[in-house]
Amino acid sequence: MIAQLGHALDIEPVKLFQQAMHMASRHVLLVIDNSSATPLQIVKHANSNHTHIDIKLRKRNSRHYKPSDITDALYRQLQNLRDEISGKSLGLVFSETSSTMTKVDNPDAVVAFEHQWADIVNRAATSAGAHALFNICVYKISDLKSLKNPIATARELIEVHDEVWSYQDSRLTIGTDSEKQIVQQLSK
Fold this sequence. Notes:
Blueprint: H1 2-9, H2 13-20, E1 26-32, H3 39-46, E2 51-54, H4 67-80, H5 82-85, E3 89-94, H6 97-103, H7 107-127, E4 131-140, H8 141-145, H9 150-160, E5 163-168, E6 171-174, H10 176-187
Parallel strand pairs: 1-4, 1-5, 2-3, 3-4
Antiparallel strand pairs: 5-6
Helix pairs in contact: 1-2, 4-7, 6-7, 7-9, 9-10
């Protein structure tokens, strides 16, 4: 049956089977305090079994956030890394999301784009021959606090991500406790 499906899709049966056996990709929200640990260090400590890459996508300091530019930059960057990442399950860390949100005139566009982001990352990684096991969007608590309605924004971010992590006082919390911790930090 796999051979027939592979033939119909013009994919080698072994490769089709390997792709089917990949773990599901996880879209992760990581909210951090102003600690000295970098997001990449936090992620590597949480999951040291996979390759993790810190991805920077904004090359210009435009005041207007354009999702299409971010998508194009992601595809370009992953294609440039193709030889290095092909065949690997990756943790992709997007550590500039938070600062981008504070520098653009339409921060709601950053949050709205999160609704599509997981699918975009999965397609971009697949096109480079890799598997995005973790797609980690990093936000600083101080940047969230600077928004008009930080708690509503945090709740939307929590809703759109598969997992929620919070890093506070040099400690990583995962799951519903991290969600509560984020809301508590924003309420202070």
